[in-house]
Fold these 2 entries.
Entry 1:
Amino acid sequence: MDFAEIPKPKPAQMAVRPNLVGYERLRRSFQWEDLYKELDWLPGGSLNMAHECIDRHANGQRRDQAALLWEGRNGEQEQYTFDQLKEESNRFANVLKGLGIKKGDRVFLFLERIPELYIALFGVLKVGAIAGPLFSAFGPDPVRDRLNNSGTVLLVTSPDLRRRIAQVLPQTPALKHIIVVNKSGRDSQPLVGGDLSYEGLMRQASPQFEIERTTMYDYSVMHYTSGTTGAPKGAVHRHQAIVQQYATGKWVLDLHPTDLYWCTADPGWVTGTSYGMFAPWSNGVTQLIYEGGFSPSRWYELIQRYKVTVWYSAPTAIRMLMKAGKELPGRYDLSSLRHINSVGEPLNPEAVVWGMKVFKQAIHDNWWQTETGAILIANYPWMPVRPGSMGRPIPGIQAGILDDDYNELPPGKDGHLAIRPGWPSMFHAYWQAPERYNSRFLKGWYITGDRARVDADGYFWFVGRTDDVINTAGHLVGPFEVESALIEHPAVAEAGVIGIPDPIAMEVVKAFVALKDGYQPTEELRRDISRFVRQKLAAAVAPREIEFIATMPKTRSGKIMRRLLKARELGLPEGDTSTLEED
Ligand code: AMP
């Protein structure tokens, strides 16, 4: 079914004049340097994201404006002005400095979405260290692997999460300090021997701090992302990324000073930092941070109570809202919402149409990835929306569709989605993996790993991924990480992991398992393996289904043929099986 284009709104229908009006004109004349003057900078040409997001506002007219409105999972509420965030992050920067943390050190954050996560992250940036936020849903193995790969020296966590990973902490030799945040005194026994108390350290710390004079090329944040082979890799970003996060906050999210913005993403995922911290705060906008998880009625209620105006969420959440029915939103006053955005997976055209009915406006899909650091392709408030399309490249970005020899294809043809390198928020390394980094650049393009096509008017349409990475509810899952966890179970000889289609989460993880001799494929064993992996990884990443098979299809060189597992699972043609190992 074809979905009709949704025309751009009439000026009278718009609550505010959009920031980006002349897209074509701006694209033609735009240079990134044009935006540099909109940043504040530090003396001597230094650039630090914490200054651009927090201190510049605290030192200016927004000093007493709320930066962060927090709603805890138990209904607790807190509010921080830009000035308070400045002081708190200064205190944390002093804490870090007192512990000997210096420029370039890795400091990881394993916390729920509480204000202290945000304060700590900006404190890390202020000392010039590299911040690595981790998903609070992670089990011990992913945390250990990421701490070790990055050589993290200091971890900030909470009593609960610390207990969850206690067994692997002795296996993290570089880690020198653990700071434990006992939010609102929630835990009666927060500290284990050797741990430091966040609250205790912060009480002693000065609220004055001179920000490290980082340059735009110094590293700021790293996020781990999954690939087809090998362990997840740490994509490293630089302070310079703030230029583009600021710009896309303006053009795509259309942030205005009067907005109340809500991004539902966790900072363990790049959307939760780039658009849950850097874009809104570099634009001086107040944002809501909700610690709790997904709940349709709760979410609608939050939009109503906080009068959210701009909302950034993900297709899985939107599909779950659709599933909860049309009645439910009718019970809330959602009229404050003026601009809705989505990222992470393809947004079904049906969802865009549903948005028109329920919210009286289009949901604006946009595309980017951990490596790109900021939005690259988007639908804008002041442009017709083609339901199912990711939109058009932002000013300053040249995107192309390439054939298998990496030559550009004309409109209408499917191929590799690629970007001309050099945009400000482009990742600068995979941590200590230069070959993997270099392999992403070919013939003058950055190869995204996605397939897409572009239409004659320059709108991009997502087709799929070129690799085996699974996208479940917007989380990229590398099959290798799940397979590695599975084969640690004593009964498992081999494991192959694929994504299978799911109406809500887009894909869910399915594992095929071959057992060691002497083990029987019983229901009890299946449950045991499932429990084992969930405990090691995270519920979202662990296989939803486990199927026992007698032998694993492999290439002659011993690689598991996930493509074949998938074809068999979905009843698709098996394709070329010439490299399949015969029994
Ligand atoms: P991540 O690096 O975890 O943010 O995941 C990035 C990947 O998510 C992309 O390479 C795509 O495969 C997928 N993705 C992100 N946004 C979209 C979108 N708007 N439409 C389709 N896929 C998307």
Entry 2:
Amino acid sequence: MPFEATVLTLYPDMFPGFLGESLSGRALARGDWSLETVQIRDFATSKHRNVDDTPAGGGAGMVLRADILAAAIDSVAPDSRPRLLMSPRGRPLTQARVRELAAGEGVVVVCGRFEGVDQRVIDSRGLEEVSVGDYVLSGGEPAALVLLDAVVRVLPGVMGNPDSGMHESFENGLLEYPHYTRPQVFEGVEIPAVLVSGNHAAIGKWRHEEAVKLTSERRPDLLGRPAAVQPVTK
Ligand code: SAH
């Protein structure tokens, strides 16, 4: 069964968006994964089909109504797919979680808007809150596209060279080593000699050392974290 993504949103036209291009777009066209959107507004009952209301307790902004969002979620046939809510309060998305999601049957993704969604829906429908970073977007749609991009690229057969994913940043708990390609000399700067030596053991060692150096400088927090996949030994 191909990986099935269902996205609940007030802006279905934002999908597939950039996922319709390049590798993910070709995989979508081939049927390696599927994407369905559910318009939350279709479940509004009032004359003007309002979906939001003022926050209980007062304060700025509006909140997505519990009854409408719950009806939209319940319209998706119950299955074993995880139900995610894109949310800045969620657990930050990691490559390890991306791998887990890609190994499953698919995802149901709820995109928030306004100040967010009524807490009772999060609780009663068992939504797992997922964040794409410590900043606030105006809606869950770009976050959902980011999550789906990361998941789809690791689905079997989507990436041109399956081996190329294994060395990537986060996969082995490290940021990736620096890359070089032609020309041999660029603005007077040469490619590091070891990379053109043909000595694969030395190249592997150099890359690992560079990855460790970069990671300890920029993201020391990653060093204690479990890897997304088993380290590739070559
Ligand atoms: N009032 C909320 C922010 C609401 S932003 C708060 O302070 O926590 C509106 C919607 O955008 C959210 O419901 C969520 O779906 C989405 N969103 C915003 N930032 C996000 C992030 N970093 N990761 C995932 N989704 C995000």
